User: What shape does this take?
Amino acid sequence: MSDLTSAPVPPIGPEDHVCGEGEGLIVYADLGCPHCAAAWAELAARPGGLAFRHFPVASKHPRSPALHAAAEAAGAQGKFFAMVDSLYGDRGRVDDPHLWERVERLGLDLDRFERDRRSAAVAERVRRDFQSGIRAGVAGTPALFDACTLVAVREREF
Amino acid sequence: MIAAGTPAPDFTLRDQDGEEVSLSSFRGGKVLLVFYPMDFSPVCSDQLSIYQEVKPEIAAKGVTMLGISIDHSYAHKAFQEKLGVDTPLLADFEPKGEVARAYGSYLDGLGFANRTLVLVDEDGTVAWAYESPNPGEFPGANIIFDALV
Assistant: This one.
């Protein structure tokens, strides 16, 4: 059973998906979350590095686990952020046939993509990010950390 | 907020299906009471959704999680379905907020409970309690696991 007690956000490491260069921020994001989609273009375009960590909240966004697995599978073929951009850019088309269209558009090997996205390794990879977010107290997405300190969340009254 | 070490006030409330649920019926097991302001609010939605994601890990610690707010069973049912959660949601509806008041969680003037977590141990004693600084933020699930170590 995983330890989900409090722990700092792990620093950016070699397993992280990082876009951009330089000092990095870390974002815990849900690929099914409209707020994350709205924030994504600005986040990805900001100067400096950005590590994307998976935080799928399946009860709220039932397709999220499949979308995160799809991003990981695309990442195995070097297209992680291309898939993230694609998913956030067109949130209304996230069923399997739509994923296959994206795979074709990105020039990925569909058979490998299908194998990878259903693999235990991908599920474990996604779960690992999610659990590190839980341990850091992530309470909504997107949650942005700078040097392991939470710097931005959506503000809400209650 | 109720203090650790005091007997947890017993209650009987209706759940999202209109069934009566008594705290005392869980005697012999641990119960996590999750007081929250109201169904459908953005923060409450995030809170219950994220807790749902770690519900198996909470259950593995021998803990039953129960949500409580001032909403009626019908609202709870719709909220549960909207969120896709299966945590029982109890209606502290009439007298409004009576259970929240008994646990020191009710916010007079606002008309609902603050976000308060109360862990009740096997013999019905409050083992731990946590209240959010304000209803706009909720305790991350890590706080629950810290209490269950």
